[in-house]
Amino acid sequence: MSVTHSDHTTAAKRATFLRTELERHNRLYYIEAKPEISDRQFDELLRELQDIEARFPDLVTPDSPTQRVGGAPLEGFAQIRHAVPMMSLDNTYSEEELAAFYQRLVKGLGREHIDCTLEPKIDGVAVTIRYEDGLLKHAATRGDGQMGDDVTVNMKTVKTLPLRLPENVPQTFEVRGEVFMPKKGFAKMNDEREEAGEPRFANPRNATAGTLKQLDPRIVATRPLDVILYGVADAEEARVKSQHEVFALMKRAGLRTADHVWRCRSADDLVKAIRELDEKRRSLPYETDGAVIKVDSFDDQRELGVTSKAPRWAIAYKYQPEQAETKLLAVDIQVGRTGALTPVARLEPVFLSGSTVSNATLHNFEEIERKDIRVGDHVIIEKAGEVIPAVVSVNKDRRGGQEHRVHAPDKCPVCHAPVSRDEELVVIRCPNPRCPEQVKRRIEHFVHRGAMDIRGLGESVVAQLVDHKLVSDPADLYDLNELLLARLERQGAKSIDNLLNAIAGSKTQPPWRLVFGLGILHVGASSARTLLEHFSSIDKLAEASVEDLTQCPDIGGTVAPSIHGWFRDAHNQELLARLKAAGLTFAQRETELASDKLAGTTWVITGTLSRPRDEIADRIRANGGKVSGSVSAKTTYLLAGEEAGSKLDKAAKLGVQVIDEAAFNAMLG
Fold it and tell me: Which of 123, 573, 642, 644 is within CB 3.0–4.6 Å of 608 for a Cys-Cys bond?
C-alpha cells in the first residue's frame, strides 16, 4: 500500500508526541516515583511508537525511547578529552579532620559560617555526560582526569538517564556523576550467573567497571546499571551559581540525584549529617563508602581554588567499615563444577558484624599477589557489601618471618591435572572433567531439585558415592543397587529403598531438566526449557550447529558455542549414550492441552507470585503458550509479581505488555 505525504506528516506528529509523553512518564516513574499511568498504558504508548518507527524508519530519532537497547558491538573505545578536567578529592577518615577542613574554609574565605552540601559517596565509577541542543551527545569515564573512554553507547542503555532534556532547562551543559549497580540488581545478576555456570562478580563496583568496558552494548543492556548525578562541569554553561542550584537543575532535567542531601553551616552540622547518613546508608539501594562535602557557592569555590590534583573546596569523608583482625591459618582451594579454582581463607575465629567468622573469600590468586597475603599473616577482614567476609589487607607490622607466600597452583589440588587460565575472567580452572571434586559438584547439580530432583542424594551421600568410586558421572547413578549402597555410612534398608525409587523416578523427568542437570556452561534452567521447546529432543539438540542454536530464542553468541562444544566432546557423547540406555527421557512428550487460550503467545515470568514459577510456567504451557527466560521483542506478555526487577524495565522499553497475576488468572477463566 502506498504511503502518502499526509500519512507521513501525521505519523511524524504522533511520534513526536509519543516520545515526549514516554520520556515524561519515564521520568515520573524512575526519578520522581510518582507514576501517572499504569504499566499497561505505558506499554501501549511504547508499542504504538515502535509501530510508527517500523513503518517510517526515517522518523527514528537518537533520543527515542525505543533506542535504549545497545546495537552492534564496538571495535574499541575512542577517547574523549574533558573540556574541564575531572579531579579527584582529598579524603578524610575522622570527624576531627572534617572539622579541620571546615576551619580551613572559614580561614580561606574570612567568614564565620560557610554554607556546604553533604551527600552520599556512591561506590561506583565516575562518568561525565554531555548534552547539546537537548540531546545526549556523549558520555566518558574519568580516565586520567584529562581524557577518558567514550562509553556513550553503553550509557544509553541506562534507563534512568534521559536521552533528551526537557525544554525548561538549559539545553547544552555537562553533568558528572557515578555509575553503579543497585544492591538488589547485583545480587540477582550474580544468582543468574551462578545458575548458568558463570563465575560470580566479586562486588558491585568491579562489576560496574567491567560492564562499562564491554565492547558489546547488547551485553551492557542486560546488566542492572544505574547512575546518580552530582555536579556540572561548567557552572556558567549550566546557568547555576551554587551546588544546591545544581540539584534543583537536575530535578527539573529528570536527572537522578542522591536520595539524601544535607545543607550545613558549621562543623557541628557536618558531623551531625555524617552520623545521620551513617544510620541511613545501609538502607540505601546502592553501596556507599562515605560522604562528599562541597562548599555550596560557586563564587566561594573559585575563591578557594584548587591544588594540582584536588579542589580545596571539597573533601570526601570515608566511613571506616567494621573490620576485625585475625590470623590467616591456611588457604584452601575450592574446586567448582566448572573446574574454577577459588582460594578461601581459613581464619582464627573472630566476631564481626554480628557473627563469628572463620572463613573469608580471597576472590582470586591475582588479588592475593596484589595484596601480598601470606599464610601466617595477621589479616584485616570485613564484610564486603556487609554480606560476604573478605580479606582486605595485611598487618605487615606483625610479621615475624615465619609467614609463607601463597602461590597460584600449576596443578589441581585434588586430581593434580595441569591448570588452564582464563585471563579475561582472572579464573584458574582444572580442565579434567573426571576430577573428583568437579564430579561431586556436578552430581550435586544433577540431582538438585531444579534439575533431576533426586531426593535423598544430599552433599554427604554424593561425597561418599564419589569417594567410594561408586559414581564418577551422572550415568553411574542409574547402575546403583542395594548392595552398592549398603557400603555407605548411615544408609539403612528404608533409606536405600527410598533413594533407589527416587533415582528410578527421575527417568521420567522431562528432557529439559536433564539438559540443565548436565551442567553445560552458560545453560540455566530457563535456557534448557527453551532449547527443548525449540528442538523437541536432546538428539536434535546434539546435532544442531552453532547457527541452528542461535536461531533459538534467548540463545546468543556466547551460549551457542558452549552448547555446541559440549555435545561434540567424546566423553559427553558417551555419557549421553549411557543415560539414554538407562531409560531417561530424551524427547518432549506430546501433552494434551487444557485449552488453547494462550496459543501463539510467549511469556516471561518475574517477581514474587502466589505459586512457584515452575507451576505457573507449566500452566501457561498447558494452555498453549510458550515460556521464555528473558524479555525480547518476541515476548507477548510479562507476568509480573511483587518486586519485579530488570525484566519489568526491559518490557517497558520494548513495549511488551505487562500483566499481574489477577489478569493472568482472568485470561484463563
Answer: 642
